[in-house]
Specification:
11 helices; alpha/beta; three-stranded mixed sheet
């Protein structure tokens, strides 16, 4: 199934959703229609079992240049009536929904990923970067705080407080090699190779049981802020007990032992 707006292409097939930011002439900057399309799609994923993995990419030479400042200049929001807060929350809600949805998200980042584009990459579970990729918290260069739309939550947890402070306090660009050095990306390669690698990751993820995959993303997110090893282990224990009671568990074990592709009974279900 495929759907598209002027700003976001969505192709759904065999449990995979492929989202493509489609404003290449504007470097895929986040205008209001794109913000609303991303927010609505990721929010809707929470109740969908037919979609198991998401791949987020972009057309053109940039992943996302951040908020569309041209649009903001042409149609400014009056903060006195709460419009500014509504717009702030609309962008923020994309990142919250990306982390809340149970589907793993793989982002393929080429060129610039600035401001909100940086946040989209950070909110993903896996980031794949082209050699020319560069990311920054552009907010501080625009007269506002460098901490915005979840970046100050994600970045220190991923790269450590000192490296995060370096980029959030200055707005400097993090290039692809530096991102790999810091562990922010799992691969730097030409775009075509990244697309092939993403397809391989998708295939491996789909071999997991649907419940096992969802619970793994959930546990990874919760473990970041867990208070102790015991809290994490308790969550892991809960997940394993839930998984072995699921009908797909036996099929997963059989497929592994028989060295074949699994066929899960819950595939294609939509809540």
């Amino acid at each position: 199934m495929a759907s598209a707006t002027d700003v976001l292409s969505i192709v759904e097939s065999d449990g995979v959703a492929r989202l493509t930011l489609s404003r290449p002439d504007a470097l895929n900057a986040l205008n209001r229609p794109l913000v609303h399309a991303l927010r609505d799609y990721f929010t809707g994923l929470y109740q969908r079992r037919d979609i198991r993995v998401v791949v987020l990419a972009a057309e053109g030479r940039a992943f996302c240049a951040g908020l569309d400042l041209k649009e903001q200049a042409e149609t400014p929001i009056n903060p006195r009536v709460g419009g500014a807060l509504d717009e702030q929350r609309a962008v923020r809600d994309i990142m919250v929904a990306m982390r809340r949805c149970p589907q793993p998200i793989i982002s393929i980042v080429q060129g610039a990923a600035s401001g909100g584009g940086f946040a989209l990459a950070l909110a993903s579970d896996v980031r794949l970067l082209t050699p020319d990729a560069r990311m920054n918290a552009a907010f501080i260069r625009l007269g506002i705080s460098g901490c915005d739309v979840g970046v100050s939550y994600f970045l220190p947890r991923m790269v450590g407080s000192s490296a995060a402070a370096e980029y959030l306090l200055t707005g400097r660009f993090m290039v692809a090699d530096r991102a790999r050095e810091l562990g922010l990306t799992s691969m730097v390669a030409p775009l075509e190779q990244l697309q092939e690698h993403a397809d391989g990751l998708v295939a491996d993820m789909l071999r997991a049981t649907p419940l096992g995959l969802r619970l793994t993303k959930e546990a990874l997110g919760l473990a970041i802020d867990a208070q102790s090893l015991e809290a994490v282990v308790a969550l892991e224990d809960r997940n394993q007990i839930l998984c072995i009671q699921d009908d797909d568990f036996r099929e997963g074990v059989s497929a592994f032992l028989e060295k074949r592709e699994p066929h899960y009974s819950s595939e294609g279900e939509q809540s």
